[in-house]
C-alpha cells in the first residue's frame, strides 16, 4: 500500500527551505544572529570594559591618598600633559597599578586620567 503525498507538499517544502535560508541571511547580515565565536568576543570585550570601569575609581582613590596640596600640584601637571600622554603620567605616578598587582594597566590608566581630568574642572 503506497502512501499518497498531497500535491501542495512539494511547494510547501520548498517554501520552508527558501524561508529558512532568507531568515538566516537576513539574521546574520543585520547582526541579529551571531556565531558562537562572535558572541564570545562580544562577551570578552564587555567583560574587559566592565573591569576597566570598575578599577579606574581605585586609581582615582590612590590619587586622592595624596595630601590636598600634592593633589592640586599633580592635577595641574596632569592637565599640562598632552592628552595622549596622560595615561603615561598616571602610570608613572603608580596610580594605575592596582592593589595586588605588580604591573600597571594601560587601559585603566587611560580611564583614570579621564576621571582625573573631570576633577580639574570641578
Helix coverage percent: over 70%
What is the molecular shape? rod-shaped
Strand-residue fraction? under 5%
Low-pLDDT segments, ≥5 res? none
Give the radius of gyration: 28 Å
Estimate the mean pLDDT confidence: 87
C-alpha termini separation: 88 Å
Give a quick summary of the entry:
By secondary structure, this protein is mostly helical. Helix content is 71%, strand content 0%.
Structure description:
It is a single chain. This protein starts with 8 loop residues before the first helix and ends with a helix. The relative contact order is 0.10. Helix 2 (36-64) packs across helix 5 and helix 4 (86-93) crosses helix 5. With 122 residues, the protein is mainly α. It is built from five helices and no strands. It has helices at residues 9-30, 36-64, 68-80, 86-93, 106-120.
